[in-house]
Amino acid sequence: MAIKMTKFGGSSMADAGQFRKVKQIVLSDPARQFVVPSAPGKRFPGDDKVTDLLYLAHAQFVSDADYEETFGRIRERYVSIERELNLSTDIGAELDAIKKNLENGASEDYMASRGEYLNALLLADFLGFEFVDAAELICFHSDGTYDDETTLKWTQKLEGMQRVVVPGFYGRKRDGSIKTFSRGGSDITGAIVARAVHADVYENWTDVSGFLMADPRIVENPKVIRTVTYSELRELSYMGATVLHEDSIFPVRKAHIPINVRNTNAPEEPGTMVVPDSYLRYYKREGTLTGVAGRTGFTVITVFKDNMHNEVGFGYRLLRVLDRHNISFEHVPSGIDTMSLVISDLNLRDHLEQILREIRRDCDPKTVEVQSNMALIATVGKGMVRSIGTAAKLFGALHEAGVNVRMIDQGSSEMNIIVGVESDDFAAAVRAIYKAFADEL
Ligand code: ASP
Q1: What sign for the dihedral angle of Cα 27, 29, 31, 35?
Q2: What predicted TM-score, i.e. pTM, was given to this entire model?
Q3: How far, in Å, from the CA of 8 to the mean position of ligand 1?
Q4: Mean of the pLDDT values across residues 410-428?
Q5: Which of 142, 290, 332, 423 has its CA 20 to 30 A from that of 299?
Q6: 186 touches 138 (CB < 8 A)
Q7: Which residue's CA is the closest to the ligand 1 atom numbered 8?
Q8: Which atom of ligand 1 is nearest to the CA of 182?
Q9: Virtual torsion, Cα 191, 197, 199, 205, nearest 10 deg
Q10: How many other C-beta atoms lie within 10 A of the C-beta of residue 31?
């Protein structure tokens, strides 16, 4: 039988009404055997996330401030879910024990983790599933980093189990102390459980119907990406798109398990499938574009030198300058007489003047030009580079929008074309590219 690992984000678990939706989703498909919930999130704009309240209560306690009111708000969130759903989890007793632990000096990580712990207890009860504590499954080294090797052993216990709820976000060190992942870390728990149970798909349920092809703050009503490969996702998230973060999904990426991002509030929508690159032939794709994303805040240093392409060691001398400053670069587009360095301003900091002096000294260039305030835009779509007319369409659209393209880098990857434009042109360029390709769909 197929197995689905289903993870529900905080807004999907925010109150009793959301719990009911979750139950309907889980029970409507017998493949949904494993469930990982987050802590209750916001019920409405301006509402509290329980995890934030737990951090706050801990901070208040350690600074001798009044934490009672905060703890009361946390208590109310869980008690109301238990009451409305007629559960007999005895969440009150659990809350009493947590409060006692706080007063006895429990750690910040322990407190933060209780959001997921309590939610998972309630959900297991509501679904009639077994609760398995993440502290028995997920291991951290004593320095606080995640221990994948031990986790692989501990999670073997899930194999062959059925109908299980595992709280997201935390595990424990060998000494028994609770340790959390970084914020949003329930995604990692879901990926770890999916790998452990050899799930056929990792469903990630949130409050959006998948990833969007462009930033909705720039493009009006962008379409949802139906299928995206893991490597395309990497490019898009690197270029600033709000998608699942690479670090949070590595267990399933490595195990070649597809991810399906779904909307708890619109379960009839198919959402976005994230698939291993080799699966692409099984998925029909419309159009060439998967997504367009970009970032501002880059500087381009272009070095001109006649006959550069014949000079042995030129690139080495140029890159060595960056190496000495311990600065990484994003791209190095080059021509016969030019080589450019595209560097993020966050990395460049105040090294620019010194770097220019060293380039002049070490590379003996004809001229060096600096363009600051640049934005990079990645137009991503596997096969895009091979499909005829793609570049023409892209640059035609930018031309029509009056955008001056300052840099082009197709790199050796087949899946994206990167253009550099002035930051002022950034939004117009993203809109023009999206429109040119979205019209195909
Ligand atoms: N509840 C945790 C947070 O708010 C973890 C998660 O939701 O994934 O960061």
Answers
A1: negative
A2: 0.89
A3: 11
A4: 87
A5: 290
A6: no
A7: 184
A8: 9
A9: -40
A10: 15
Q: Which two tokens stand for residue 354?
A: 């010194």
Q: Which atom of ligand 1 lies nearest, measured to the CA of 185?
A: 8
Q: For residue 384, what is the DSSP state? A: T
Q: Which two tokens stand for residue 247?
A: 């670090």
For residue 115 and ligand 1, the question of a CB distance below 6 A is answered with yes
Q: Buried b / exposed e across 174-205, counting CB within 10 Å, b at 16+?
A: eeeebbbbeebbbbbbbbbbbbbbebebbbbb
Residue holding tokens 């080589």? 339
Is residue 412 very low, low, confident or very high in pLDDT (cuts 50, 70, 90)?
A: low
Residue the block writes with tokens 């139950």? 23
In this structure, are residues 288 and 440 in contact, taking their beta carbons and an 8 Å threshold?
yes
Model pLDDT for residues 299-317, shown as the tens digit of each residue: 999 999 998 888 899 999 9
C-alpha to C-alpha distance for 288 and 393, rounded to whole angstroms: 11
Q: Hey, what are 438's tokens?
A: 């979205």
Q: Which atom of ligand 1 is nearest to the CA of 115?
A: 1
User: What are the C-alpha distances in Å from 329 to residues 246, 326, 363, 374?
Assistant: 20, 10, 18, 14
What's the CA-to-centroid distance between 87 and ligand 1, angstroms?
24
> Does ligand 1 lie within 6 Å of residue 186's CB atom?
yes
Distance 10 CA to ligand 1 centre (A): 7
Q: Look up residue 135 and give its two tokens.
A: 């502290």
